[in-house]
Amino acid sequence: MNLYPKEIELKLSFDKVKEIISSYCLGPLGEDFVYKLSFSTQVDKINEWLGQTREFIYILTSGAGFPSAVYSDISPDLKQAEVPGSFLDIDQLYEIKAVIETLGKIHNFFISHPEDFPVLYQRFGGVEVDGKLLAALESKIDEKGELRDNASPELMRIRSAISKSQIRARTAVNKILKQAGDHGYTPEGASLTIRDGRLVIPVLAEHKRHVRGFVHDESATGQTVYLEPAEALEINNELRELKYAERREIIRILTELTNLVRLNREDIERGLRMLGVLDFIQAKARFAQDFDCLCPVVEKTQKIEWKQARHPILEQALKEQGRKIKPLDIVLSPSDRILLVSGPNAGGKSVCLKTIGLIQYMIQCGVPVAVDEESKFGVFHSILIDIGDEQSIENDLSTYSSHLTNMKFFLENTNGKTLFLIDEFGTGTEPQFGGAIAEVVLIELAKTKAFGAITTHYGNLKKLADNVNGIVNAAMKYDVKILEPLYELEIGKPGSSFALEIAGKIGLDKQMLERAKKKAGVSHVQFDRLLSELESEKNTILKEKKEIEAKNKRLNDVIKDYEELKAHLEKKKTEVLNEAKKEAARVIEASNKKVESTIKQIQESKADKKRVQLAREQLKTHKDHLTDAVKKEEKKQVVKITEPIDPVLRVGDKVKIVTSGAAGEVVSIKGNQVELTLGGLTSRVKLKDIEKISSKSFKQTTDDRVKQMTGIDLNSKMANFNITLDIRGVRAEEAIGKVEDYIDEAILLGYNEVRILHGKGHGVLRDLVRNVLRQNRKIIKAADEHIERGGAGITVVTLED
What we know:
The protein has 801 residues and is of the alpha/beta class.
């Protein structure tokens, strides 16, 4: 295994990554493990590290009720306990007790979740300390870290005697104080006090001989003395003897407990180490959460197939400036092992190189990385980098000499399992010779089958990449219209330095630029111009392609809606016609029967005028009934055809939230997030949770919602809402209602993060709160606050946007 140079972590900013992870640790032992992070080539070990962190991320996001792992470094206490006959004080034993309690809770957690967290269970499921030690400590030390009165029968007897003697002494001295006060021997407002552990009374100096007793102290002015009355002397002596006896008994108890600690020292040390490891793992998990990192599975091969890779330190710096990082898609495969990155200065070439080095180094140290979940990782046995100015005054080496020294080391130590990174390849000397040397070195590196990435401005290297197997050109994209970098990596073609264009933008004289073109040579200028024109044409084509794709998608959606509507109408038409035919047949049959009946009546009446007239009237009445029935049926069978709602969502469209039924207007669309105006409020919801509606439906839904919201003053609620709910001291039943109402109100007002202050105590109220939160689907995460801001005493609740 080779890591070159020895300052590789500093050059890749991995030291800053460790500082960030360390800030998430709860104690010094976790911090020690962070700074001991080591680069590994063992795939199984790396995957185990990443698996542990992956499972702890799930613990944090699932609200599984993981016990608080806050601990103290009790290593010095355990070292002190090694000496036979020594004893630890009560505070030290209390810290040891707390550590053992924490180990027990963690042990029980993993024992009860072996299938949910198999990797962590295998590591921590067997960590426990003899229960007899914890029972002994709990029986003698209370929750406040003080020795219990019943820690032993003798201690209970002594403390009871002390209590009685103190009452006797106070009663006697109070009596004397009152008598002295009645005679005017004491200062105004005098009261009992203690000097050297003995009860005394303040007496004016001029009257000290009027009160029998012993002077223990005097005031700064000498006007008052503190006198122990003779009547209390015997009681105070008795009290002092009892205090000595109490101290001897306490030492005996502490020695006994220390002996138990000594017997279990190895188990406690092993458990303490495990707490440090667990602290280290949870710190990596919290780092992954805050920096949106993943813990991928590493393969036993050499490859880089990364999507949306981000440099975490750069991303943090840009975020502080209100800017966003541009993720990179990076591929190094057996067929294209070496990436030759070109492009303008300040275009992101060096950042691309450092991103490759840092992410690969992080993953082989078992640290989560900022990439898309479809990314794939391999393992390299060596990482060699030549980044930055390595000029050495001590060794009398120039920058270029230092680069050549590095190249010599690379050529001697590179093989098929090596990843090398070289920034500004060949620079530092005359371009003609620097480019030639860089070319032959690159050819030799390609022969070793190693993987790597190189940044350069040399045109001969760009041409070489098109002719040598294993080397592929790549470019940092550049907007040639506004002459600004896009910080996006494009693999497959070289990039232009845009030197002449940038010089023109800065404002150099055009004649000077023309002379520069002639000196650079026609071929160089034409090559650079060709790259510039290709970049411009490609950007135009890509823009037009996106517009066409968007139009095609919309057209396909409209066609699909039209075909669905047409099919629906055809089906409805067929149903109406079939029903009409059936009804017509029924009408004809009924009419025929009526006509035949009428003819029969006329024939039987032998043309009787009255009978004929009556038959005609009956036939007319039947006709009128038929006409009315046909009209009613026509109205009944009318098919209402409405224009289909365009499914493509745009700003200004009216939508309805599926879950709540609230209607609003689209303000903006960002990926799968939609910003809506709901009444007087603005809210962000997921695209899948809304559906597009017509203006009429929007008005109706809005009116209904307004009726439902009558009596609720949202502005007042927003003004009076507190992002922290304090439920300390609240009974369990009342706390449940308070938490549920508070979360409902936070969701209504559009908050995405609130805090619930429940205190630490025995953790009962905390567990109750977590159980209530776990049942609400709108809650993404419920986790402890940072240790410096309240830790386990506060639950931070993250709600859906």
